[in-house]
Amino acid sequence: MNILKSLALSSVFISLPSLASALDITFGHTLALDSHYQVAAEKFKEVVEAGSDGELTVSIFPQSQLGGEVRMIQSARTGSIGAFITAAPPLENTLPEFGVFSLPYLFDSVDQANGVLQGPVGDMFLEKLSSAGMVGMNFFSVFERSVFGTSPVNSVQDMQGLKIRVLQGPGFIETYDALGAQSTPMAYSEVFVALQNGVVDGAEASPEQVVQDRFVEVIDNFSMTKIHYMPSMLVMSDVIFNQLTPEQQELVREASAQARDASLEAYKQTYADALVTLEESGVAINEPDLAEFQDAALALWPRLLEGIPDGEANLELIQEQL
């Protein structure tokens, strides 16, 4: 009898570790370790793990270790990953309403864009993710995207004929075509070599990305065209989120809010630091008059809005918050 009791107790204790094991939230993003994405991811991990008494852990996979943003969107919808940070354009195939954020010169500044996205308009777009099996947690800082490459851009005339790598999507491709460039969509991972070998003359990105991904080694100019203010956001898999208790869900939302705040602060700092680094690296910082760029780009809005569901209505909502 004692032997039977001992065996029974042993089986109970053997099962306890699996019952008490933590749920690990796999968290992916595409940027470098010194990016504001990583700062936000680390804040999210810190808050979740500190507040969950060991019941939740977060494993961070930066630099596209879980795939690009389109791949992570697909993985989150199936529950293969728990959370990820994405820019808005990769969501357009799944939720075409997000195309409104790819309108050129939609915002006038990073602060203005972030102000809109941290309000009712941002909440409305985050809620749209639920129809695609995802939970929109928070918008992070937008990226102010400008042209960098081998040639200076001080006027629209300077754009004529330049082969510019752009994000895949009508709001980017048609804008650069309208400005006279030859828009050239390609994978981001190919851009460095394409610039190095002269396959493209330039690309568009935020200044800190140019520094973090070492494009300073193959360019001579960064031109502050500020054509797009591209949103980014933290998204969770609905499958994983629904495995959490109500208390854990609240904790994750609080962690997301603190990660958002960390993102907003870190982006401004890395942006400012990058401009200094660019100059110190011998890259010319060009500041063109944006009026003629805006005139040419804004003329595209009616055509672009035709291809965006609820585009005009959502644009009106955005403009009401400016």
TrEMBL record:
Keywords: Receptor, Signal. It holds the Pfam family DctP. GO terms for cellular component: outer membrane-bounded periplasmic space. The keyword Transcription regulation does not apply. GO terms for biological process: transmembrane transport. Residues 1-20 form the signal peptide. GO terms for molecular function: carbohydrate binding. The keyword Signal applies. This is Tripartite ATP-independent transporter solute receptor, DctP family. It comes from Pelagibacterium luteolum.
